[in-house]
Give the backbone structure.
Amino acid sequence: MINWLHQEEGFCEGCFESKVFHDEDGDELSIAMQSPDLSECAEKCVAAFQNLTESNINEICKGIINCAKEGGIDNDFELPELENAIDILNYCWFTTLYVNMLNKDDEIAYVVEGEGEWGDDIGFAIENNKIIYVGTDYFDYMKDRK
């Protein structure tokens, strides 16, 4: 599922194909973690991400819409009327899924990072298949690795 590009202590990066959330150039997102020991965790995170429910996806999209409405760096961006919440994904992209687990026995947890056409970085945090945050301060939900 994950194509690993680097697996060194302190920095591990790979990529995978996303079903719903896309980057600027297509369907491939990066995945990052701090240790090769977390490879099993990474696989669990990607599987959970790929199997988000329609309800979860709509909740994430509604949160992203709220971010877009609050404005951003690009004051010229005007959010068009959307037929449904998922249409917001036409105006933003996602780059990286960060594994937010300290060991394989933790509940599945990850943070996804992206950006909106309105100029703000956006992201969301998931723990145990529940959305715990959608917005610009998504890194506040990363577990302390020290």
Remarks:
- The radius of gyration is 15 Å.
